């Protein structure tokens, strides 16, 4: 009808034509827009999938947006064909490497290890007192993490009698405070909160300034905030550091980390390992508990400190450590409380060192190792 201009319906036909054409054009435009958006989303999704390039596990996806991805051949170049081993563990092996003259630590995870995959997922956290992730490798069956290099190794090495270097009381408190700050971040600032599950002195690393950073999140678990107070999981961790309730019932919450940190704090104070071999093998918490009633703090503190510390500061630290290793989790402080009390211990000791002027004592030189006042005692040159 609209083709005949002589018919009386010509006016209405023009109106219909004027109405239909814009509608068709609008529908076509919207369809093209939707198709374009769908194609764009599909392309982004393919680009983000590790399997599209490497065929590896998608659990690594959370770190891809901000961290550099390395091929396995690049990892071999970085580590000089995996030449220098820094350490080994259940997750795999850590190698020394260099990227553009910057030292790094490359942690190659066991492909068959479920723990390894959990570790990859856990490395999304970022804090000054957590080891920094530089990049990752997700090349076929080769899975690894590239970290900043921690020049001074782990804390345990400096608590051993075999080391010629002795950390001052101030230095020990600074390291403990750094570590506590890292754990507080995991417990209260991550979403969802995280439990480390493998707190021990070898997992507290020290950079060139002796600033402490937590490492090895291979056993980390997220814990509920609203749905419950604990989670159930298979027993994992290191003997001597495991909380009693976790060892017996597999019940895990942030107080499990607090217990383990209490053991580390006792190691820092006494300069002894988690298990002490005297006439019998005894746990450090029991050993300290037997000495406390005597009231002789010097029998507990590392004798290599040669009594150069504020006694009140040490007593407060010992009491805090023993509270952390309470058998009942309810009696343990939170990591936030631990951090507050450690800061008080440190402030008390700093007041003593300031008053003494940090001068040379008994033939030993005191060297300030960092901007954070990490002090170390080194034997005098003979």
UniProtKB/TrEMBL annotation:
Instruction: State the InterPro entries in the record.
Output: Kinase-like_dom_sf, Prot_kinase_dom, Protein_kinase_ATP_BS, Ser-Thr/Tyr_kinase_cat_dom, Ser/Thr_kinase_AS
Q: Which UniProt keywords apply?
A: ATP-binding, Kinase, Membrane, Nucleotide-binding, Phosphoprotein, Receptor, Serine/threonine-protein kinase, Transferase, Transmembrane, Transmembrane helix
Cellular localisation: Membrane
Q: Name one GO cellular component term.
A: membrane
Q: What is its main location?
A: membrane
Q: Where is the Protein kinase domain?
A: 80-346
Gene Ontology molecular function, alphabetical: ATP binding; protein serine/threonine kinase activity
Q: Does the keyword Ribonucleoprotein apply?
A: no
Which positions, given as ranges, span the membrane? Answer: 20-42
Kindly give the membrane topology term recorded for this protein: Single-pass membrane protein
**PROSITE patterns, per this entry?**
PROTEIN_KINASE_ATP, PROTEIN_KINASE_DOM, PROTEIN_KINASE_ST
Name by which UniProt lists this protein? PREDICTED: probable LRR receptor
Q: Which residues bind ATP?
A: 107
Which species does the entry assign this protein to? Prunus dulcis
One Pfam short name: PK_Tyr_Ser-Thr
> Would you identify the family this protein belongs to, as annotated?
Belongs to the protein kinase superfamily.
